[in-house]
Amino acid sequence: MVLTIVEHDDGELDDVSLQALALARDVAEQTGESLDAVAFGPGADAVAEAAGAHGVETLHTVEDDALADYAPEAYGRAVVQCAEELGTEAVIAPGTDRGAETLSHAAAKLDEPMAAEVTDVEVGEAYELTRQRWGGTLIEHSKLTADTNLLTVAANEVSPSETGGDAAAVEPFAPDVDDGDLRVQLTDIEQSDVEGVPLGEARVVVSGGRGTDGDFSELEALVERVPNAALGSSRAAVNEGWRPHDDQIGQTGAKIAPEIYIPAGISGAVQHMVGCKGAENILAINTDPEAAIIQKADYAVIADLHEVAPAIAEELEARGHAE
């Protein structure tokens, strides 16, 4: 059996969990095993219908009061106990901070290796993996051999797909955790006060870098005229204090996958490109025709962003695309 860790928000599976299920289903089909999932926290049973639609036969729900809030070591122990009870071939987690942290604790407790950022698996005598390294700038082909194969799925690299199955059967699972497993727990969440579409959900992302000289007004105006758009920035702009860290796109910031990404005044350092490599199209605006971002873009405008951004906004308004 292949077990997938899934994450949810108020009973709705997140996108990266759906991507993990797609890869896990492929592994299950190659091994001839069934696909199960484990979900934590209140309302976990509400994801049974969505999980079933993506190929899950049984959803194991952990609703222990002690685990109502995220506790990485306890979650890891629960995954280990669930996997051992079920006789699991592999445990696959979404490529999120929580997914990676939970699975790393499980790997330590099982004394097994863990492979992160996987995009493809070929099952044979060993698991032959394709995975991302160095923030996606290197693709690695490797083999994983273990009693229980543990891996996380690279975010936004595997397309989720439904199978049309019925809702998964729900089976509560009660792990045996002790106080030591709860020494690190989530105690509070601080919501950003930034309004608008979250970067990770936007269909259009416009961002600015050092080339803005701190003036983001034209980019903000462009975002306001485009439906389902969000404003981001480079690390340089954040370091200058021009934008909050919540806006940062890159290896140490947000990872985005919009239909179109418009970086303006951004050089295109490797660390920034890691954050936007999931974009379907890149339209770069820069005065330097030799900038790395120009070489990596699908479309480019060699001009001052303070002239180009207003022109784009005006053209969209003239064509009736403004909100």
Which bin fits the share of residues in helices? 25-40%
CATH class category of the largest domain: Alpha Beta
Work out the number of β strands.
16
| Strand arrangement, major sheet | 9-8-7-10-6-1-4-5-11
Radius of gyration: 22 Å
By CATH, the architecture of the largest domain is named 3-Layer(aba) Sandwich
> What structural category do the secondary elements indicate?
alpha/beta
Characteristic terms for this protein:
alpha/beta, single chain, Rossmann fold, elongated, three-stranded parallel beta sheet, 2 domains
How is the topology of this model organized?
Elements: E1 2-5, E2 8-9, E3 12-13, H1 15-31, E4 35-40, H2 48-53, E5 58-62, H3 72-86, E6 90-94, H4 97-110, E7 114-123, E8 127-133, E9 138-144, E10 149-153, E11 169-172, E12 204-208, H5 217-225, E13 229-233, H6 235-239, E14 260-264, H7 270-276, E15 283-286, H8 292-296, E16 299-302, H9 305-318
Parallel strand pairs: 1-4, 1-6, 4-5, 5-11, 6-10, 7-10, 12-13, 12-14, 15-16
Antiparallel strand pairs: 2-3, 7-8, 8-9
Question: What does this protein structure show overall?
Answer:
- The chain is α/β, with parallel strands linked by helices and 323 residues long.
- The chain has two domains: 181 residues, Rossmann fold; 120 residues, 3-Layer(aba) Sandwich (Rossmann fold), CATH 3.40.50.1220.
- 28% of the residues lie in helices and 25% in strands.
- It has nine helices and 16 strands.
- Strand 15, helix 8 and strand 16 form a beta-alpha-beta unit.
